[in-house]
Amino acid sequence: MAEPKPGIERVKDNVYRFSYEHYHSAFMVTEEGIVVTDPINEEAAGWLKTELAERFDVPIRYMVYSHNHIDHVMGGDVLDSDEVTVVAHEYAAQDLEWTRAPTAMPELTFPDELTLRLGESRVQLRYHGPNNGRGSVSMRFLPANVMYVVDWVVLGRMMYRDLPGYDIHGVIASTRDLLSGEPFDRFVGGHGEMGTREDVEDYLAYTKALYNAVLDGMLAGRDLKTLKQEIRLSEYSHLSMYEEWLPMNVEGVHRTLIDQSYIDRRLNTGN
Question: Coiled-coil stretches, from where to where (predicted)?
């Protein structure tokens, strides 16, 4: 099946979603300029640059990376210019530099929170701790009150395969923290569907149910093969890729509990 064509759709007020294949980024248009987020790759960034120039008679002022993963930050050099400030969390910026990522390097970094202002509009960037990748942040576009998060919250779909790059404890903690803040009107993710705060609550419920099912099974002495066969979580069967990725999701949590929490050593020692 052919991949969908690139597209732009209005989310709310002056906030838009840019889609390229199964990736999404967000941008905000003001009289003073545009804030763009993840460029995705060179082809996507080139298409977006052309569309922004044709649709809006204002320049890009900020380009914000959601986190360090290369499948979201490539193409930054296409959108960068002397008028653009490239922004990222300090951990994401460090990783891009350490790994010599072939994209535009961040010029403005921050440890916890940062607000970017263009006229009456602003973007609140916030780090919630580890979750997926390095330096992943939430972006709240105001006054539209649209929330944008990449990879660690995905609506309408299972978590990605066997959770590469995920910190499952951090995903749960970060999503709780996101929901504990001021309510947002609309949610845009780097993958999956757009939705509401209630949809993010449903996503959190799935991650917690998955985590607890795997942990309970491991503590009861079940091996990975058995867990992948027995854990069904049928109340979430409506999610895209449920049949294909549920066993992989189980495997990802199982691996995390061994690598990060040494659950296997606890079982082996009886402690």
Answer: none
Structure tokens given for 144: 């539209």
Provide the pairing of β-strand 33-36 with 146-149: unpaired
pLDDT digits (tens, 9 = 90+) for 226-253: 999 999 999 999 999 999 999 999 999 9
- Which pLDDT value is given to residue 271? 46
Joined together, the tokens standing for residue 4 give 């969908």
**Other beta carbons less than 10 A from residue 32's beta carbon:** 14
Q: Which of 134, 137, 157 is nearest to 148 (CA)?
A: 137
- Contact, 165 vs 133, CB < 8 A? yes
What's the predicted TM-score (pTM) here? 0.95
Q: How far is the C-alpha of 217 from the C-alpha of 222, rounded, in Å?
A: 5
Region for 156 from its dihedrals, namely left if φ exceeds 0, alpha if ψ lies in -120 to 50, beta otherwise? left
Q: What is the pLDDT of residue 167?
A: 95
The amino acid at residue 89 is: H
Pick the CATH number of 7-269 from 3.30.420.40, 3.60.15.10, 3.40.220.10, 1.10.3720.10: 3.60.15.10
Phi, psi (degrees; rounded to nearest 5) at 102: -80, 70
